[in-house]
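Because showing beats explaining, we think one record worth quoting, sequence and backbone structure tokens together, and here it is:
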Amino acid sequence: MDPVTLVVTALAAGASAGLTGTATQGITDAYVGLKGLLRRCFAGRDPEVLDAEETEPEAWRARFGGQLTAADVDDEVRTAAERLLAATDPAGSQVGKYTVDVREAKGVQVGDNNTQTNTFN
């Protein structure tokens, strides 16, 4: 999974667990920790993009609006995102659901319950 997708997916999963009341202390701590690391990345930029409690990855991606780049996702941020996903979806993490490599792929969607129509010329 590309670094930005990993982060937005983790943020959405953490927010969703918190809003549904299913968040354990471990999920809450991992969510707060990831947002804290991202605030460091946003030093000098608009840190308020992290203040939402969005539950959809695409909503997070829209909020970041290109401000979060793969260069912002260092090993510490990646590890925090993976830890949050493992806490919110242990079964999915265990089988590698969040480890997707789509380098050089075309017409790919990552996620559950997607619909896509491709027209290649």
User: Anything to note?
Assistant: The helical segments are 3-19, 25-41, 57-64, 75-88, 90-94.
